[in-house]
Amino acid sequence: MAFERVGVVGLGTMGAGIAEVFARAGLRVIGVEADAEALARGRGHLERSTGKAVDKGKLAPGQRDEILGRITLTTSREDLRDVDLVVEAIPEILDYKISLFKDLDRICEPGTVMATNTSSLSVTAIAAATGRPGRVVGMHFFNPAPVMKLVEVVGTVVTEPGVVADVTALAGRLGKTAVAVGDRAGFVVNRLLLPYLNHAAALMELGVAGRDDIDAAMRLGVGLPMGPFALLDLIGLDTAYEVMGVLFDETRDRRHAPSPLLRELVTAGLLGRKSGRGFYGESSESGESGAYGGAPHREQVKPRLGTFKVVGYEDEGDGLAERLRAAGFKASEDPDVVLCLADRPVIEHAVRLPDPARMVGVHLVGEQVAELASTALTSEHAATAARDLMKIVGLTPVPCKDRAGFVVDALLFPYLNDAVRMYDAGYASIEDIDAAMRLGCGYPAGPFEMLESFGLARVRDGLRALYTEYREPAFAPAPLLDQLVTADLSEFPRR
Ligand code: CAA
What we know:
Layout: E1 5-9, H1 13-24, E2 28-32, H2 36-55, H3 61-69, E3 71-74, E4 85-88, H4 94-107, E5 113-116, H5 123-128, E6 136-140, E7 150-154, H6 163-173, E8 177-181, H7 189-205, H8 211-221, H9 228-235, H10 237-251, H11 260-267, E9 307-311, H12 314-326, E10 330-331, E11 337-340, H13 346-350, E12 359-365, E13 369-374, H14 380-392, E14 396-401, H15 408-424, H16 430-441, H17 447-454, H18 456-470, H19 479-486
Parallel strand pairs: 1-2, 1-4, 2-3, 4-5, 5-6, 7-8, 9-10, 9-11, 11-12, 13-14
Antiparallel strand pairs: 6-7, 12-13
The structure holds acetoacetyl-coenzyme A.
Acetoacetyl-coenzyme A (CAA) binds at residues 49, 52, 56, 58, 119, 142-144, 146-148, 190, 193, 225-226, 231, 235, 239, 440-442.
């Protein structure tokens, strides 16, 4: 089936982006909003987004006019009677969606395909509320829709043969890659992404590290396009909260219970970019006007960057010591700060020193980041000295508490473990999971690519340490990961 006329219901950030994607591909679009005010906001999204492209020289002004000219805006759903496809992008609340689909079912021709952009709700439940369950699918775009290359196409047990294939072909025409998935809360991307974002909020609430430090660690250390708090602001804290709630209802996994921090911010109306303030303020990602702004208060101690000692991990330790010496610092047996690169909790090493207050744990992440773990005994002087030393050798310090996995491994490894469990449960292939995270979230590599490049044993051991410390059942290594390590394999078998 060829789709030429499409309707988009709901012109918030996602709906307007989806309308733009269709119009850019040459389709005629009818955009529907509830009232004139919402319609004006939708028009504003479309004008700003295409205007930005013109300013950047990506679109000629004439092309922009053509794109906008293909989009008709209306407050009447009845105008959708002749469309071939309608995509819904209204708030993530099942009752709203069901009532909308019942209405669309009445308005649209029997052959019209009806798609929901839900991130987490049951497509089957939405389909079953209509008189055409076979022609209802999920068509899940990613924010910003004009940029992210992935569309998750969700078929249900009652979807007619051919509909998923038609929608998949349409995604290709839009310049997107489609991954076909079954109807499970969160599909592939949100099932893996949202628990990680929720976990970041939990780590902040536990005081393991601050907002800016966590974001910097994930961006600069792992190469993600955004840190978790900047991404929560982009997605919208209300949307993230709703999606977490649906995941929790399905899984009863307490990691999926929305962080109390999210609830508090949503209740306060701090929804992220859409409301101008969320974790961050309006002006910049590192603005102080958002909630939980900046790093935790640190006592200003004038650094006395004298001497250091590096202990642990020979190669990495030698490399860091060499960099510090090259920057003019002296190694010493009576150092100001002892930099400990080793596994096990830093405190276990610190208590063996005559002066445990001088020890700071160090974990180098990629080429740019040094996580710096203070123990309960670390002095402010040693912590500050360690931070300054790292800055001088060109590393971004990420101060954190002495907890298993510090920040990066604590956030990354459970996400990788979830991907292994998802694959092992037969929900999606390794190739699809990797592609979904690369194209849906702009990750530099998918979870299996990351697992194989980090080394399966390292991730398995890191998960064991996390499990030992937090006793969180989901942190226990997935049996498949454990078995591959036991069998001394370094790659996942591609089935
Ligand atoms: N509309 C159109 N184009 C946009 C845009 C928008 N709203 N925002 C950015 N762009 C374009 C820019 O014009 C630019 O294009 P060129 O490269 O051609 O110049 C490009 O995207 C990059 O933008 P910027 O240079 O302004 O900014 P950036 O390099 O920092 O990238 C980003 C911004 C694309 C958002 C990037 O940070 C990113 O990929 N972040 C991750 C986003 C993500 O994970 N999305 C998925 C969220 S989960 C979800 O959406 C599902 C759900 O159900 C909750």
